[in-house]
Amino acid sequence: MKLKKLITGFVMLLTVSLVSGQVTFEAKVSKKKLGINERLRIDFEMNKDGDNFNPPDFTNFTVVGGPNQSVSNSWINGKRSYSKTYSYFLAPKRQGNFTINQAIIEIDGEIYKTSPISVTVTGAVETPKDGNNADYIASENIHLVAEISNDKPYLNEAITVVYKLYVSPDTGVSNWREIDNPKYSDFWSQNIDIRQLKVQNGTYKGEDYRYVVLRKTVLYPQKTGQLEIEPLSLDITVEVPTNRRDIFGGRLMQRAHKTVSAGKRTIQVKPLPENGKPADFTGAVGDFDFKVTTSKSALNATESLQAKVEVSGTGNLKLFQLPKLNLPSSLEVYEPEHTENVRTNLNGMQGSISDSYTVVPQFKGKYPIPNISFSYFDIKTESYKTLNSNEIIIDVLEGPTTPASNQDITAVSGSKQRVVLNSNQFVFIKTKTNLTPTQKTHFFKSTGFWAALLMPFLAIPLVMVYKQNKDKRQADVFGNKIRKADKLAKKYLSQAKRALGQKEAFYVALEKALHNYLKATLHIETTELSKEKIESLLRKGQVTTQTISAFITILKNCELARYTPITQVEMEKDYQRAAETISQIDKELK
């Protein structure tokens, strides 16, 4: 009886130890039923670290936050407990019953998958108007506004859209991400670069607010009638005050995710008036100057000059055609070279555009370049204006004269000249040849023939040596781990470089690159990657204190950057520091 109890206890202990040593990878959601105006949090949790995490595609949801990564590593009563979680915040796109598919990860060379999860999305639910509810406070204290300079422009008249984010004085914003970008399908558009965001004081609906200009865009409507400007939508991490206080009396802050949208805006585009429209009008709208110039007024035949047609000023410079030069037929003219020197600011396009023609006279004489006209619609006076160039005379001083019957040819292009034929019309055809016989060569029994015949037999020892080396390399489990980690480090460092400007993706890739570099260099597992362990191993490898400190700082930046606003310039600096520090460790490590 005692033996039976002893065996039963041993089996139970063995079962518990086996279960505790198993790898688990599972998905958990904050709720399985939610309103279309609510958020869903999904966590992918594992009890052992892995590589190559691939989330599901979230087809019926918009990712408004994440991936956020958290790691828990502790020892309790001599027993180690490890947990790593990837978290996403999702906003449903429509109502219905949906399935979130499997996530995949590789742990110790094995592939693990989560189970699919079913979620039901219902109609909108009422948000509680609770002063302690972070979502409600965020919705009341943060607003995104699109300010339009003119909602009734003419066709091809410049208007500006300025997107401002208003935040109440006691609310903070730690991060934001664009989730819906306007396409401006019926407009020519140009974004104005904002080098540095500047917080300013202003008012929103009569109350004091702080605001920041997020985007400035210049639009030129290309159609008449009612046109819609699509909304800009942002996912924002907001820090809102609560009614709770700390032990020092300071108000505690609570973090919430909020989606804000500037909403659709409609403008009424007026057509240009038909009354008084010039025949040569090609769509220019604005305020312009017009001129035609030549690089020379006198030259010899077969020499060249440049004739430039130029329009300068403010308006839709890139959206209309320049008038064409009308030149005498005795002047050889090449296709013009188009040049644009245009800058765009909140007043629209400014600068100049030009067509430069290369002109080569063939005969001696004086040739006029007749005046040409350019018409545009002036927004200020709401009327058409026509500008004319001056006539220019090209004086060809030396060169052959035109045939007698055509001495007075100075007409514009389109007039005809008599063709003068050479007395020997077929002089270009060669009637004598210089052919030489070629030698015949035979492949059979040649050097190439014997080489091709013997090559497969000579390759057999090489194939055998290659196979032996391959088998030996595959048997080297430790070496393969190191080589794989080195390959992953290079892969993730390359991903980080491509993701510059995308904060979450950049720092996740950079952190993975640093971890895999350490695994390859220091021959340690992911579970041992504590800062103290890394510092100790680098010191043993005689890496200088300054280099170790730089590497630890980069790791800390990867952890903290996800929760603080980071500019692309700072990302580029972190990437450069990481590359330089890895290179320095390679030089110093012994």
Please outline what is shown here:
Helices cover 25% and strands 38% of the residues.
What this model shows, in words?
The protein is an alpha+beta fold. 25% of the residues lie in helices and 38% in strands. 22% of the residues are buried. Mean pLDDT is 80; it is low at 13-20 and 404-423. Keywords: Membrane, Signal, Transmembrane, Transmembrane helix.
SSE order and pairing:
Blueprint: H1 2-20, E1 25-29, E2 33-35, E3 40-46, E4 51-54, E5 61-76, E6 79-92, E7 96-100, E8 104-107, E9 110-113, E10 117-122, H2 134-141, E11 142-148, E12 159-167, E13 172-180, E14 187-192, E15 199-204, E16 207-221, E17 225-229, E18 233-245, E19 251-261, E20 265-269, E21 286-294, E22 298-299, E23 305-315, E24 331-333, E25 337-345, E26 348-361, E27 365-369, E28 373-378, E29 383-388, E30 392-396, H3 447-475, H4 477-498, H5 503-522, H6 531-540, H7 545-560, H8 568-588
Parallel strand pairs: 2-10, 22-30
Antiparallel strand pairs: 1-3, 3-6, 4-8, 5-6, 7-10, 8-9, 11-12, 12-16, 13-18, 14-16, 15-16, 17-20, 18-19, 21-23, 23-26, 24-26, 25-26, 27-30, 28-29
- Number of helix segments? 8
Q: SS-based structural class?
A: alpha+beta
Summarize the amount of helix as a percent range. 10-25%
Instruction: Characterize the largest beta sheet: strand count, sense, and whether it forms a barrel.
Output: 5 strands, antiparallel
Question: What are the segments in which pLDDT stays under 50 over at least 5 consecutive residues?
Answer: 13-20, 404-423
Number of strands: 30
Gap from first CA to last CA: 62 Å
Look at the structure and give the mean pLDDT: 80
> Which shape, going by the Cα principal axes?
flat
Quaternary form:
single chain
Provide the gyration radius in Å: 37 Å
Number of domains: 4
- How much strand? 35-45%
